Amino acid sequence: MKARLIGIALVLAGLGLGATLLRDQVPIGGASAPPAVTAPNEAAAKLQNELNTIDIVKRFEPGLVYISTEQDIASSDPFGWMFGGGGQETQVQQGVGSGFFVNAQGDILTNYHVVAGEGGAGTADRIRVRVMGRSDTVTARVIGLAPQYDLALIRPEGLDASLIKPIPLGNSDSLQVGQKAVAMGAPFGLDFSVTEGIVSSTSRQIPIGFSTTGSGEGITQKAIQTDAAINPGNSGGPLLDSTGHVIGINTQIYSPSGASGASQSAGVGFAIPINAAKNLLPRLQAAGGSVVFAPKLTGVTPGLVVQQRTAAGARNVAVGLSLLSSEGKNTLNLPESGLVVGTVAPGTPAYQAGLRGGNSTQAFRGGAIQLGGDVIVEADGLPVDALEDLQAALIDKKEGDTVTLKVVNAGKTREVKVTLDAAAFQ
Questions:
Q1: The CATH number fitting domain 300-425, selected from 3.40.50.2300, 3.40.50.300, 2.30.42.10, 3.40.1190.20
Q2: Which biological process, per GO, is one annotated for this protein (predicted)?
């Protein structure tokens, strides 16, 4: 009886310590001899999920691309004159990232920040790619850039066509929380690595990409959240579902303050939904190496600007009403927050829909505001207080789509429905 109690205690201890202990050790009670152990059949012992993951990796990992970049950075050498130099030296800044083939022509989709130049401007001086199973790299050229979406399309030069293995694109609109997620990429430069997790959220709103208005923060967009391990170097790599279709493009991680080392995964990673990239892909392919911007309201300019001083000089930046004092807004009969409409070009869809700009300008220290026009306070139900807020409501739209604006003018609120024309995407 005592031996049996000891056996029960061992089992309970094993359960308390976790599944690993129980998997590796079977507690033995009493004086009974251990049962005969049969060597497991490893192939038969694999779980269905393991077999699925192995199949995904075998079939689609060859479509993954390792990306390396080099940027020449000129810096001042204060002691250069002592050795006959001009006081300038050039350092090479290197970067790594991931990407994947999207078509038979060899187009590679990746993050903009993977191929971007110093400070997020332009592109790196040299971009090279390497495919799985090869030690050599080839040069890649830029086909199209979309900084606001943090997306870029590049194409290798001189790569054997037989090495191009496109990965099929899925449908991110049909995702459900709890679905399997497989991330591929090059974390910390460890190329062709695979991690697995689940979809933690299908519509996490986070700033993505690079702002073009100087605010320093990207446009708030819908992102996929996953607990599949994503780390620096995974950027631009694909996030796949259990069918091996790409559901997202790994772009950011959440790293808690104080974590040891540089930006490490905390089990919270984000991916750009593949449907956003699919909508943008034709524009990227036709860009001819230039930048593709988020949709805008054709002929509409913001009416509240402040002067921002940078190293390159002063420039005007559009801002929202929330930056003005409540006293000033009350005096001017303006809402607490919103995007002031400065001008609306006649004949444009916005003008035809009834959106109106201001008729007078009032200057103030450090900026100016146009008065008498509409103030956009919502776009498709989303609050608007900055140009990025308006772009966030438009970012997934296509030509012919409509955006519903809630506007305030002279204390009265109304709705304006604007249809996006081709010029909205130029």
A1: 2.30.42.10
A2: proteolysis
